[in-house]
Specification:
The complex is a heterodimer.
Chain A: E1 3-7, E2 11-12, E3 18-25, E4 34-40, E5 47-53, E6 58-60, E7 68-73, E8 78-83, E9 92-102, E10 105-111, E11 115-119
Parallel strand pairs in A: 2-11
Antiparallel strand pairs in A: 1-3, 3-8, 4-5, 4-9, 5-6, 7-8, 9-10, 9-11
Chain B: E1 4-7, E2 10-13, E3 19-25, E4 33-38, E5 45-49, E6 53-54, E7 62-67, E8 70-75, E9 85-90, E10 97-98, E11 102-106
The chains are: A mainly beta, B mainly beta.
Chain lengths: 121, 107
């Protein structure tokens, strides 16, 4: 059974860097697919942040691209998110998720439970 | 970015009702359309992928249809556990984008 678990600080100060890690169990991130991050501000909709391919290539949301870095550690089977220069607008639940790719199919099939990150001084 | 618009934003329905939610894309996305169900305090759960394929373990009362720019999610007979928010999402191009969500409430 594939499971994803986010971890990281729940409170980040404005202008600092938000750092989260997603530990993956039951599946190797070096195998196939993309591994990425999606966020949801309180009471609002879902926003795709970006993803990293098992080969190491990345795709980012252009609205966040200048501030986002997604990286992976295949030896420890986890991937990470860094979002720099955060503001209150970055307050959200952050989900890590497997992005499943197959012929004619691109979907987010497995989600972590999510972690709430608040940006406040 | 491709804009995804769901309608309605919310609806009230009774157990046993047939419910239909529509999702429209601002440009053609072929069949790269997914549907998710989200309950309060929980992560979204994949229901339908590639417009009409039922994810393993999802009850058959859920179905999806459409292609191009217009898609529908249908719940054939609403059950108590189906009261939730439903999101559509396109995956034809980066950035992947979601609809604003449709909240299904108890009448």
């Amino acid at each position: 059974q594939v499971q994803l678990q986010e971890s990281g600080p729940g409170l980040v100060k404005p202008s600092e860097t938000l750092s989260l890690t997603c530990a993956v169990s039951g599946f190797s991130i070096s195998n196939v697919h993309y591994w990425g991050w999606i966020r949801q501000p309180p009471g609002k909709g879902l926003e795709w942040i970006g993803a990293i391919h098992h080969s190491g290539s990345t795709n980012y949301n252009p609205s966040l691209k200048s501030r986002v870095t997604i990286s992976g550690d295949t030896s420890k089977n986890y991937f990470s998110l860094k979002l720099s220069s955060v503001t209150a607008a970055d307050t959200a639940i952050y989900y890590c998720a497997r992005h499943y790719y197959d012929s004619g199919t691109r979907t987010v099939d497995i989600w972590g439970q999510g972690t709430m990150v608040t940006v406040s001084s | 970015d491709i804009q995804m618009t769901q309608s309605p934003s919310s609806l009230s329905a009774s157990v046993g009702d047939r419910v239909t939610i529509t999702c429209r894309a601002s440009q053609s996305i072929s069949r790269y359309l997914n549907w998710y169900q989200q309950k309060p305090g929980k992560a979204p759960k994949l229901l339908i992928y590639a417009a009409s394929n039922l994810q393993s373990g999802v009850p058959s009362r859920f179905s999806g249809s459409g292609s191009g720019t217009e898609f529908t999610l249908t719940i054939a007979s609403l059950q108590p556990e189906d009261f939730a928010t439903y999101h559509c999402q396109q995956s034809v191009s980066v950035p992947w984008t979601f609809g604003q969500g449709t909240k299904v409430e108890i009448k």
